[in-house]
Design a protein that fits this description.
Blueprint (H helix, E strand, L loop, with lengths): L5 H5 L9 H33 L5 H9 L2 H11 L21 H9 L2 H36 L1 H7 L6 E3 L3 E3 L2 H37 L7 H54 L4 H27 L2 H6 L1 H11 L4 E6 L2 E2 L2 H22 L4 E8 L2 E8 L13 H10 L3 E5 L6 E8 L4 E2 L2
């Protein structure tokens, strides 16, 4: 059975004949090279950043230096594949609240994992890579030098003498062969020493740059991030399913019902007066009513105007259908994420339905736009007020839906009015109109 990691391989009898000693050596050697390069890079960045701080140019460089652990941690997770065939999961990355370098930088600096990875980078640059180099030197280079004593004696010593580790002189062939045997024995022991050292280094790296363990604050934060992402994925999947149902009903059942209505109408025109004509007229009327109800159902599932033309057109359509006159002033020169548009539309539609049913208002207005990376909507009416979102108005479920998108829904409705419903959802443009 093939070992999946270095620890399993160390307990196997054929460890020295497998590729694992070479993999452990490669892990330690690449660690020594990477650590030395990291030390030079950090030193240069700190010196240059400190020197340029007097003219404020060095401050951004020092801030970027604090993020040096992120790419090094990513590289370390790749290097761990040398001693562990299974990929090492990284920490979940929190999405910035807005696009741009500054929100990304602030988000990274607020994460505990960023500072843990910076600590790993400093430990790597100052302590770990010299240890990697020493282990390789004593466990591999020294035994190989001893094992090559007869070759050195024959090649460079004229068959008369050879220097061993530049300390001792060997002048006889039996002694040279004995040193070579000792070197081979030490090389076998060094293979195990390399495996143990590489395994210990890998365990430390997993703690510092791997996914947080159960019970750690970072683990709780990672679960929150993953739960948030899963909720967003569910919302996206729900919206996609709504659009599919709307499309299937529009292109399937509705078209068949339209054809049925037309056929009944033609049959009604051709039928002579009498009971048959009366029945056809009744069936034609019921088919027309069923078609109207189906169209309303399709519109309620996911209006086609929202998918085709965006939120402003869908809100204007909802305002035209409202029982109360509605003024619309919605400035959105582009398209927003579909989940955001759908949530905002259904909030507006539910608010207008409540205004028509309960408020006694003479007029309502819908205003809003996109400001500072957020969609902002306001629905206001001049009714009697006293509305309560928790009293079965239908807004509670919409508030939950908005919160999934990290948004906020608030209702202000004092007795006597006016009533103001506010919605804010963080989002960015997916398409800008010319």
């Amino acid at each position: 059975m093939r070992s999946r990691d270095l620890w399993q391989a160390l307990s196997a009898r054929r460890y020295l004949l497998s590729a694992w000693p070479w993999r452990a050596t490669a892990y330690l050697l690449t660690g020594a090279v990477t650590g030395a390069a990291t030390l030079v890079g950090l030193a240069v960045a700190l010196v240059v950043g400190g020197a340029l701080t007097v003219v404020l140019v060095g401050l951004p460089l020092l801030l970027l230096t604090a993020l040096a652990g992120i790419p090094l941690a990513r590289l370390e997770r790749h290097r761990l594949r040398l001693v562990d065939r299974a990929p090492v999961p990284g920490r979940p990355v929190r999405e910035p609240p807005a696009t741009g370098p500054w929100p990304w930088l602030v988000t990274r600096l607020r994460e505990r994992a960023t500072w843990r990875e910076l600590g790993h980078a400093l430990l790597f640059a100052l302590l770990l890579w010299p240890l990697d180099a020493l282990v390789v030197a004593f466990a591999l280079a020294v035994p190989l030098h001893l094992a090559a004593t007869p070759l050195v004696m024959a090649t460079f010593g004229g068959g008369e003498e050879a220097k061993v580790l530049k300390q001792w002189t060997v002048t006889t062939w039996p002694t040279a062969c004995g040193v070579a045997v000792l070197g081979l024995l030490l090389l076998a022991l060094g293979g195990y020493a390399l495996g143990l050292a590489a395994g210990a280094r890998a365990e430390l790296a997993r703690v510092l740059v791997g996914a947080p363990r159960e019970g750690d604050p970072d683990a709780r934060e990672a679960r929150v991030v993953e739960l948030t992402r899963s909720r967003v994925r569910l919302v996206d999947a729900f919206e996609a399913e709504r659009r599919r149902i709307e499309r299937d009903l529009h292109d399937g059942a509705q078209q068949r019902l339209v054809a049925l209505t037309m056929s009944l109408g033609l049959a009604r025109l051709d039928a002579p007066p009498g009971p048959l004509a009366d029945q056809l007229a009744k069936a034609h009327g019921e088919a027309g009513e069923a078609l109207a109800e189906l169209r309303e159902l399709i519109h309620g599932i996911h209006p086609k105007v929202l998918a085709d033309y965006g939120l402003p057109a869908a809100v204007a359509d909802a305002a035209d259908r409202s029982a109360v006159p509605v003024d619309v002033a919605l400035e959105l020169p582009g398209r927003l994420p579909r989940a955001v548009e759908a949530a905002a539309y259904f909030v507006v539609r539910e608010a207008l339905a409540n205004i028509g049913r309960h408020s006694g208002a003479d007029r309502a207005e819908v205003t809003g736009g996109h400001r500072d990376g957020r969609l902002v909507l306001r629905v206001r009416d001049d009714g009697r007020g006293g509305a309560d979102a928790a009293a079965g108005s239908g807004l509670t479920g919409l508030a939950d839906r908005v919160s999934v998108l990290d948004g906020r829904l608030s209702l202000s409705s004092p007795p006597g009015g006016p009533t103001l419903l506010s919605v804010e959802i963080p989002c960015e443009w997916t398409e800008r109109f010319a």
